[in-house]
Design goal:
Four copies of one chain form a homotetramer.
Chain A lengths: L9 H8 L25 E4 L3 H5 L1 H7 L2 H26 L4 E2 L6 H16 L8 E2 L2 H30 L5 E3 L3 E6 L2 E10 L5 E15 L5 E8 L5 E4 L4 E6 L11 H6 L3 E10 L4 E10 L3 E3 L1 E3 L12 E4 L6 E3 L25
Parallel strand pairs in A: 5-13
Antiparallel strand pairs in A: 2-3, 4-6, 5-6, 6-10, 7-8, 7-9, 7-11, 11-12, 14-16
Helix pairs in contact in A: 3-6, 4-5, 4-6
GO cellular component, one term (chains A, B, C, D): monoatomic ion channel complex
Membrane topology (chains A, B, C, D): Multi-pass membrane protein
Pfam families (chains A, B, C, D): Ion_trans_2, IRK_C
Chain lengths: 345, 345, 345, 345
């Protein structure tokens, strides 16, 4: 796609600065979080078509392994029960070798014949004779093959799906940084596989009082000390230095809470095993910020022997630290004009 | 690919401005739509090789689920009939256990033996003996495995195929926008999965009368208020502000119809579950424009509880609105020189 | 990867201009084509490891369908023969139900038992008893499953492999273009699926006589009238205008043949069904150029009804045309200094 | 992701220059290699969740073929032993056809029945009767199908995983280059498939003594004669010219060893069969540099017949060569200010 538009109208330009990352400016309920900690959105949908909303494949690819196996087992059970019922209707006497001595034994053999057909194991102790039983079995074995093809697809989808398992520190901190202070959080790769070419973007969203007294949600990009690394073998503390040009300058934790500030984190990387692009999102609400703290090192004491050892359980470990006297948070109204147009493509 | 060409000849530059998005300038039948509403093209092909045009895999991946299962069922039926015929030729007496009492029962058992071989269920009530029957069965079971491998491929292809299910409003509208008017349409994600990093491009195609009286199709890129969002959890109204620099400036709906105007929409996004790039295309013909309307909100009344609720059925809901007196559409000849060179890569 | 190197040494810059697309400057045998018509390279390799060179998966994914099924059938046959041999060694009397009346019938039943095990159809007319026969059968059925998993992988790989089926005109032509002449060739999508966002790059490679009399292969990028289109529903004639800045300026067909000119074509596009990037390469040797010709239209006569019809068989149809008197080819030595540095990334 | 940050604070800029590729500046043990020859990192992890660290799929995709088949065979054996035990508990007399004459024969038949169920071959010589044996068999056959689906996923994952098999010369060399010297190493594609659009980046990491006497790891990007090629059919010698602007200028091999210099190599390319992006990493430690050598040609003597022949075994072949007298290595302190900010994205 390369339809470039060389000259923008001023009016268009002005509006473009009022960007909203796609959330819109109307979400101004102070209790509404834009982005949940797990990266999902706070929007409910209705009126979509049944099949669109069902979206079985995506759900089965995304759900937990426990739920996945539970669903497969239930499905296997229910399908065999249904087919046992169908064989009963057709007449189980058409299943050669089935034990017809009692209703219970008859239905049991129909059920197990169904399972042997569905999985295509087909021992043959019980085998269909006659048109109808044979037809049902022929349909069931085809269904079994298709279901199995689906299971293979699902398993491959689950395994090969590009996911960034990034651990975020529980809290973001405000900490001394060089001769100023910095807004920081820490990340580490939860998995043993490698992520390369990581890019991080941080945006601050606050509720601003308009001249007409209305609340409007605004978005500010935060400059980072480093927004990109080539490799990510250890932990990485992402730092936004709170200099005079920062939209956070002069704001203390209480001010941020008052402004309903939420810090949106977007990470993009390349997963090294399958060379796929992966994304990770999270947000820190102003209530999840600790002012006056620093992160403890994550390296294990037993380094040496030429190998650096990283302890993942220390990701959220912080120590108290006093902020320099220079950092005097005062409530101030963030001016609309200062909003940086931070995400022109 | 990085063969850059630093200095372009003026002649080449001039020709480059006469870009056509790949449709060519000769499609000037006013009744011919360039792009259908579903994003497909209006071009028929002939003379391609049989296999090239057949393209079974792509068709089976793209077709509807109903058609897919219909084709699989027919294929299964036909293949079993063919093999039943082959076993009849070889001699069904070589199928141990087959019911030879009548032609009908014999052929039936051959048919079901075939299905039991193809699905590899192989109960064994009927089993091949002798060279020819065994050989046919050996070939059929291999074929069964390959067909099943194909089915697995097809199912995975169908499920993992990157598709953007974007709902477009039925009509595009011309609506008041800031202190001018705007050309607008609305989109929403039909599926519950997330699309991120959406980019939208809009081009207007019109039939221009050349100095020599010939009609020539021309293409103009339209500047958008916003052409990119990071997230797409709710609906998005795409706006082209009709300012003085707009190629639509001063054109009313009747003028657009007269010029056979067609608005081509191109959307590119990243699907979040599998992190794949997805495309969506559509077009609005000038006949599908409503001048003097605005979109009704899509949010449900039962918001609250910290969750925004979106009603997908409202995507095309519009309300009448009067356009400002400033917007006085007058027929004017669009000058060729004003055509913006909007899609240099 | 983002290790940028801001300031380049002059020496480095000078050497960079002597780029060679990766072929090197030593390939100066006039009979050696750099790129074959099908896009493959003219380089033989030896000394690679056996497995590296074997590369079974890639070969089976790339080979023709005929060869693919031939290989699968042979493999199935050979594997069953081998296992029949193993069962003979273990003792076919351990295969319950096998016909032991003659050596021939015994080996036949071992062979078919093997095929029934490998495909996991397992009728059970013949079934293993005792430790050794059962063990061999257990190993064979596992092997069968793995081979079948491999076949599924191969089929999916074959089908989902991103390939651009682009038809190139047999000849490149030199044709009148605006007020000069142009080097042209024509392409069309062989398949019914869509290619979007096509990018084309053309480079000319010639053998230049150095001041010391040595022949050196040089590469020049050719500016195109249009190097990119958004859509590709019909045919596309790619044009390099031979203006005064063109490295082809003043060279006739005989001069190009004398200079052993070869035109390397690189195409990059996005396949619309699976949204994959696809590449296509070819080359036109100077012997495959027709000077004084133009391409005949590819549109079918039976257009109308609002649908454009494209006849793929006309891709190479050309008509004779006289070149303007202005185009007077004269042999000239191409100066080294004029070489454009056309492919800095 | 396109949150751009237009104006950077000077403080942020200064810190950005102190980039570390993601390794951090604290890894200053002279015996610790940053990157191993095979491209892996020297960081150990602990405290990760059991399942995160287990990461079975990734391991099975990445491990060698020998190990892969070993694991599959062991898993098959162990699973059948477990199920044989379960059938013994349930009572092997419920397996119709099992040889109950001795404990050994009974367990053997349970084991082989299990293998026939797991692979779904199901001959039926042994078949379950009664509720419990049938239930266990039904579960086992479902398990078999899922395991087989997993195996298919694994095989496809192993085969389709984008890997660049790039052979690096054993040693990097310092060799005469134009009128100066150059740091060089040589690469060739180990596989017969094509790599296109190769990009190479080289960074030098050294331990610098800070004014306070502390050692700090620093990173310098090295300008290359050519950092990109379109095609890679033959070998490619990557050259960093050691001009006055090079951070290597004036440093001999002993100086590099003293500074614990390590040269990090990053390669990015597109694999042509599946059009996937592939990465390759390696590093040369200063101890792996040969000063005063040049690479021998890799072309085979039996060229001719229009085909260039490449001998892969010659990749590391070097010949001694004397460096120009101009190249007088002297120990010098590398100044911190000269560090080039080489990897701004």
């Amino acid at each position: 796609m390369n339809l470039l538009h060389p000259k923008k109208d001023k009016l268009v330009e002005a509006e473009e600065k009022r960007r909203d990352l796609g959330f819109g400016t109307q979400i101004n309920d102070p209790d509404t979080r834009l982005l949940n900690r797990d990266g999902s959105f706070n929007v409910k949908r209705e009126g979509g078509g049944f099949w669109s909303e069902l979206n079985i494949f995506n759900r089965l690819v995304v759900c937990s392994w426990g739920r996945f196996f539970e669903l497969i087992a239930s499905f296997y059970l229910v399908l065999n029960l249904i087919f046992a019922g169908i064989y009963e209707i057709v007449g189980i006497e058409n299943l050669q070798g089935a034990d017809m001595t009692s209703v219970r034994s008859r239905l049991m053999d129909a059920f197990f014949f169904s399972s042997q057909t569905l999985t295509t194991v087909g021992y043959g102790r019980i085998a269909p004779i006659g048109f109808w039983a044979s037809t049902v079995a022929a349909v069931e074995s085809l269904l079994g093959l298709l279901i199995f093809a689906l299971a293979t697809s699902l398993l491959y989808g689950r395994f090969s799906r590009p996911v960034a398992h990034i651990l975020y520190s529980d809290k973001a901190i405000i900490s001394p940084y060089l001769d100023v202070t910095g807004f920081m959080f820490r990340i580490v790769n939860e998995r043993a596989n490698q992520l390369i070419d990581l890019q991080v973007e941080v945006a601050m969203s606050i509720l601003e009082k308009q001249p007409n007294g209305k609340l409007l949600r605004r978005y500010y990009g935060l400059d980072l000390e480093r927004s990109k690394v080539n490799f990510f073998p250890t932990n990485w503390t992402i730092v936004h230095p709170i200099t005079q040009t920062s939209p956070m300058f002069g704001l203390g934790k209480e001010d941020l809470v008052k402004l309903d500030a939420e810090f949106l984190i977007l990470i993009k990387a390349t997963e090294d095993t399958f060379n796929q692009t992966v994304h990770s999102r999270t947000s820190y609400h102003s209530r999840e910020i600790v002012a006056g703290a620093k992160f403890s090192p994550m390296f294990s004491d037993k380094e040496g022997a030429g190998v650096v050892t990283l302890d993942l359980t220390k990701i959220s470990d912080i120590q108290e630290v006093s902020l320099s006297s220079e950092y005097v948070p005062t409530v101030k109204e963030v001016e609309i004009g200062k909003q940086s147009d931070f995400f022109i493509g």
